[in-house]
Amino acid sequence: MEGIVFVISGPAGVGKTTLCDRLLSEFPNKLRRVVTATTRKPREGEVDGVDYHFLTKEDFLGQVNEGSFLEYELVHQNLYGTQKNALFVLHGEARQYDLLLNIDVNGASSLKKFAHDNTFLRGSVFSVFVLPSSIQELRDRLLQRGSDNQTEIETRLKTAEHEIGRKDQFDYILPSKGRDADYQRLRDCYLSCSSKQ
């Protein structure tokens, strides 16, 4: 495969989506977002096929049984996954593009394993873990986001602690120091990885 698959991961609320959106905005002729699938309901402003492929649980599990997913995980009572065709369809029409994935820690681990065993992807997947400065910072961001109730926030924070414990499985760890600083370091990391292909 020409180009890389650049994977951004980290706890909910750490700013992954904002970082990804900035990368895509700055590099529209070089980078393409891989749209992943989920069974969760769309948040306000999210568009099916742009933000996620929003599927029913039955449709999602049907595709799992058909072997349509590279990786999938149950996260906070919702299924999330990367469909094979979402990654491979871009290979034919857009081989010159790098691909960007925003997925959870388990999904990133599964994708790295799949890439290791697949000659098409081997050596082209680079993963970044965005590390929050503290659990309190995550709590504040999740509260500001306003899309989760208190119980959901506490569940996400417990998951975050587990995910932080797995940060060393990633190629790069990006300790959060604020939105602009985080973006500049992520941008530098992306350009460094992209130049390796």
Question: Can you offer a commentary on this structure?
Answer:
It is a single chain. The chain has 197 residues and is α/β, with parallel strands linked by helices. The chain has a single domain, classed as Rossmann fold, CATH 3.40.50. Helices cover 43% and strands 21% of the residues. The chain has a five-stranded parallel sheet with strand order 2-7-1-8-9, sandwiched between helices. A four-stranded mixed sheet has the order 4-3-6-5. β5 and β6 form a beta hairpin. It is globular.
Structural class: alpha/beta
In whole angstroms, how far apart are the ends? 9 Å
SSE order, as H and E? EHEEEHEEHEHEHHEH
CATH topology: Rossmann fold
> What's the story with the biggest beta sheet?
5 strands, parallel
Number of domains: 1
Mean pLDDT across all residues, rounded?
88
Question: Helicity, in percent?
Answer: 40-55%
CATH superfamily: P-loop containing nucleotide triphosphate hydrolases
Short recap of the structure:
The chain is an alpha/beta fold. The protein contains seven helices and nine strands; from the N terminus they run E-H-E-E-E-H-E-E-H-E-H-E-H-H-E-H.
